[in-house]
Amino acid sequence: MKCADLLQQDPSAAEGALQHPFLKACSDGSITPSQFNAWLQQDYNFVNAFAHFAERVRASSPSAHTRAYTDGLAALSEELTWFKVKLKERSLQSGGPLHETCAAYIDLLGQLEKQSYAVQAAAFWLVEYVYNRAWQLASPVAEPYREFADRWGNADFSKYVDILEQNADEAIQNADEKQQASIRAAAHAILTIEERFWQMAMEAS
């Protein structure tokens, strides 16, 4: 089993996560400010929790893989600062109340922190892959949202995601049958809640 298999095992969930109507609405400019703002606020909350998950994955990783998560943590720290700027530009609070979908995603990260490195590495890759690939598929994105697509859909981020995939593939190859089952379950959970996360924003009034 490899990372690519995790997308093929659940094509409908993968499509929902990667090609949701929220992304299409960003692309053609039909997204409303309230919908985009709802996503932005909750995504800040998620990324804040995801940075803590990255720390756990780095601590669990073999030395040959640690550099990737160290680099990722630095990028996430910078990203959280950027989020605050974007939220302020839109007169939105950072660290506002958690939507139940965002809270469920953060709870999932907490559960994954207790799993083996192989599960964590695959999950970490998948979260970053979805961000990267979803915004690539949505591009070109209409203004004023183009910078968001460019941030997560750019070639440098894709190269980083490729490194994460290599790490995860190595870990998966060394995983036993029980761990591989946990990896498949984690992938399904991530793809499902990613779709719910986009839908959460679409339902904002």
From TrEMBL:
GO terms for biological process: thiamine metabolic process. InterPro entries: Haem_Oase-like_multi-hlx, TenA_E, Thiaminase-2/PQQC, Thiamine_Salvage_TenA. Residues 15-203 form the Thiaminase-2/PQQC domain. CDD domains: TenA_E_At3g16990-like. GO terms for cellular component: cytosol. Substrate binds at D43, E79, E128. The active site is at E194. It holds the Pfam family TENA_THI-4. Gene3D superfamilies: Heme oxygenase-like. This is Thiaminase-2/PQQC domain-containing protein.
